[in-house]
Amino acid sequence: MKRLLVFAILTLAIAGCATVAPTPPDIGIAPLPPERGLVEPEVPVAVPGEDFAGQPELQERMIVRTAEITMVVENTEESLNRIEALAIQLGGYVSNSQSWKQEEQLFAFITIRVPADRFDNARQDIKDLAVEPPTETQNTQDVTQEFVDLEARLENLQRTEEELQILLTEVRQRSGKVQDILEIFRELTAIRQQIEQLQGQIQYLDNLVALASITVSLSPQEQVVDTGWDPGKTVREALHDLVEALQVLADIAIRLLLTFLPLFLLLFIPFLVVFWFVRRWWLGRIKPTPSI
Predict the structure, then answer these.
(1) Prediction pTM value
(2) How far apart are CA 90 and CA 125, in angstroms?
(3) Which residue has the higher pLDDT, 56 or 147?
(4) Which residues contact 233 (CB under 8 A, 6 or more apart)?
(5) CATH code, domain carrying 73
(6) Cα separation of 53 and 43, whole Å?
């Protein structure tokens, strides 16, 4: 029974694969395509369901669109807020946003997702915030063939799943053996997992196509440096330097007082005691000379 079951499953899988690309009716041996440059191509005849080139009409092309814009703005924080508001206004969202300070100037990096049909409008509105001509890079990726392949595989697996469910019902009605039922059930579980994976990949491609990505790097405009002489500023800077110098001297004095003074006392006091004993001993040895 187990061999018969495996044979039935393989037969269903092969039959499912065959349905993806049905074999055309036998109309004799098809002529070989003309070699390029040797035979002039024939003018194709329009056939319902086919385009002018004689190829089957494909669904709408699935294009993933992305853009990277680098620009200088007058106010980084304000521009960042306006880009976030623009994404929400167009029906999209902010997928990533970062900001940091460098030399007291704010820099930012933001990625937004907007509907594909509003991609060009979003790009133009963002570039209008620049105070200098921005740098832009656009990328497009055609995922139509990948999408078609995934749908074909999904359809094949779904058809195989239906056939296995029918086979499972027949086995339950005829033999009802637990081993056979479990074997078919394991096959159904494996196929269901593959179906869910393909559905996730298709949904992911749908999301990439429906929402285009725009990554923007924001840099602040360089501030104009005033080279004029300002005596008041010089005085303020000099006073500031004086205060810092006095602070340094005060720190040194405090460190000397709290660090070296205790050490000095610990070493000097024993020295004084020893010196006093030595001096007293020496004076005791020297006898006074009697006067005449």
Answers:
(1) 0.54
(2) 11
(3) 147
(4) none
(5) 3.30.70
(6) 9
